[in-house]
Amino acid sequence: RKEVEQDPGPFNVPEGATVAFNCTYSNSASQSFFWYRQDCRKEPKLLMSVYSSGNEDGRFTAQLNRASQYISLLIRDSKLSDSATYLCVVNERGSTLGRLYFGRGTQLTVWP
Amino acid sequence: NAGVTQTPKFQVLKTGQSMTLQCAQDMNHEYMSWYRQDPGMGLRLIHYSVGAGITDQGEVPNGYNVSRSTTEDFPLRLLSAAPSQTSVYFCASSYSGTGSHEQYFGPGTRLTVT
Predict the structure, then answer these.
(1) Which is the most buried residue in A44, A73, B19, B107, by most CB within 10 A?
(2) Each residue of B36-52: pLDDT tens digit?
(3) CA distance A38 to B9
(4) CA atoms within 13 A on the CB side of B7
(5) CB neighbours of residue A78 within 10 Å
(6) Is residue A55 within 8 Å of A35, Cβ to Cβ?
(7) Which one of A96, A100, A104 has the shortest CB-CB distance to B41?
(8) Using the beta-carbon criterion (under 8 Å), do A97 and B33 form an inter-chain contact?
(9) Tens digit of pLDDT at every position of chain A (112 positions)
(10) How many other CB atoms are there within 10 angstroms of residue A26's CB atom?
(11) How far is A111 from chain B (nearest CA, A)?
(12) Does the distance separating the beta carbons of B42 and A105 come in below 8 Å?
């Protein structure tokens, strides 16, 4: 079973739409959670960390449900520039060695 | 700061050839790692290093060697290239090895093995 599972999409939404991505992880000992963004043929870049209480950064809201081992990312008022692949990333509790596990990514296309 | 740099950007190898992918960072990060990204597979960890002189294997280390003689550089060596090693390779670095810090990725090396 893969450590991190994501719906690969693709999600195709119009500008201004709200879209949500989900991610599940298999290891209950996972400690840190992130969403990375990857543009076509580019390197991944950190979008936001995910905190237990949930957190928001502008139009982006991340939620964590430890009981269900579930992470979500909500994008409000989608922009054309939000088109990218979104990667769910977790690392394990007690891992002092920075082992991160990446989901396969969810592809988003925002159309005008 | 240049961040994380990788060379070359593109490479074509014949089966059996060897080569080294270069990675350097100028952020004084202790932790560096190599990933490969294949369609539908996500990023998979090849090797990582928590500091100069210390390296360890990740999820898919076979066919690759690494060394870390300085904090700045973390080259990845392909010993005898195989078509299964056709992939995009990303080098990454972060402040520490605890996994709680942002990983900075290089622009990637696109490798084709024929």
Answers:
(1) A44
(2) 999 878 899 999 998 99
(3) 17
(4) 3
(5) 21
(6) no
(7) A104
(8) no
(9) 678 999 888 999 999 999 999 999 998 877 789 999 999 989 999 999 998 888 999 999 999 999 999 999 999 999 999 999 999 998 865 555 557 889 999 999 999 9
(10) 13
(11) 23
(12) yes
Query: Six-digit token pair at B14?
Result: 């014949």
pLDDT at B102: 83
Min distance A14 CA to chain B CA atoms (Å): 25
Nearest chain B residue to A46 by CA: give it: B102
Cα–Cα distance measured from residue A9 to residue A29, given in angstroms and rounded to the nearest whole number: 27
Strands B64-66 and B54-57: unpaired
Q: Which of B10, B26, B19, B8 is nearest to B73 (CA)?
A: B26
The per-residue pLDDT for range B60-95, each reduced to its tens digit, is 999 999 999 999 999 999 999 999 999 999 999 988
In chain B, what is the straight-line distance between the N-terminal and C-terminal CA atoms, in Å?
Answer: 36
Backbone angles phi, psi at B83, to 5 degrees: -55, -30
Position with higher pLDDT, B31 vs A60: A60
pLDDT of residue B70: 97
Contacts of A67 (CB under 8 A, 6+ apart): none
Q: Which pair of tokens denotes residue B67?
A: 């060394």
Identity of the residue numbered A86: Y
d(CA A105, CA A102): 8
Residue with tokens 């990312």: A73
Each residue of B35-61: b (16+ CB within 10 Å) or e?
bbbeeeebbbbbbbbbebeebeebebb
